[in-house]
Amino acid sequence: MSEILKGEAIASGEYFGLPLACAEERGFSTDRLSFLATTMKALIDDGWVPGILTAVAREGSVVHIQAQGHADKASKTALRTDTLFRIYSMTKPITAVAMMLLEERGLLQLDDPLGDYLPAFNEMMIYTDGNLIPAENPITLRQLLLHTSGLTYSMLPNEPAVSSLYEAAKINEARGRLGTRNLEAHVDSLAEQPLIAEPGTAWHYCEGVSVAARVIEILSGQGYGDFLRDHIFEPLGMIDTSYSVPPEKRHRLATLYEQQATLSENLQPEYKPTTDYGGDYLTQPTLQAGGAGLVSTASDYLRFAQMLLNGGELDGKRVLNDASVQCIMNNQLGPEFGPSPLETLAPKYQGLGFGLCGYVVRDGACVGRPGRSGQYGWSGWANTHFWIDPNLKLVGLVMTQLIPRPEIDFNLAATMLKTTYDALENEQIKEENC
What we know:
17 strands, 2 domains, Beta-lactamase, about 425 residues, alpha+beta, single chain, globular
């Protein structure tokens, strides 16, 4: 066991979600894995971010976990391995698991028309070339999770007229946790807006995952947060994951920061605390969305990711069958979507395919993102990121709380990925993952 792991585990008794193992026992170099700590410390010292947590597990055991810097810089509260993070869009893969739970129970099929469950989506219109035309095909449940439904997010680059309609309908206000709409009302409002593309023809990051969550509410008869608690969080022992932070855990919630356009004396972007992206997370939101909104810890998310890596099982408890996990983690975008369908979201996603609610590395053509074919993962808005490498039986996780600015090049996930793969002992493995 590394000194970092042993020292933290003995001194604090903190829980890391999975068993601990020595790096060498799992094919890593302890010396090279220590570069994770120095690399992340440099980013903190240079003023890029107040604090960073990194974690790596292989073959079911944690070989590295470390928290550095501050959870709150003003009070000098240290970031800890049990710090609570707003995970934003890392909520989405959890919704994919929830949907597959119902599919396994025979309550739905992924290629069912959405209108079978939500009739308001039966006759959708598409905004194109300044006109509204009827959609030729129905939206399917699968398309909601693939982001090919024709729905959108209004804050992303898209057709301005559709964005303005989303804004007029106060879609973003509802998503911000501070509105008065619940998931049912939010989805009803989405059904009234035009689509940005014919369903099944274009990849566009969108509100579809929250629509999927509403379908889960209807079929399960439970509020969405309650369904996740009963069928995913409790079975997996995800003790800190929920839509709000209870009073006894509030001291563990990291402060959320936002990058500023101004530069510090060392020419790095400044950051300031903010509550503009979902409020304080201390009360239950009216809207429990499927696409964002959860708070979690590194330990909890490691357990979730390890369950997927294990083919749906963890610690003797089966959440999904292996076929369902393969459906989630395999690329489902065909050649008709082009070589880089995710590039519409960000250049860092160039050359990647997409499974259910997460990217998938295709053909080993990583384009600067280490990992062989089959790597699956996704990010959260505040610079959280996880990935699963089934070939190497590897899970990685990096977490901070910094809302980025699109014009500033700060790719924390890429830094984490490269440093992790560089620490592998097997040179053949390293070459195949570059």
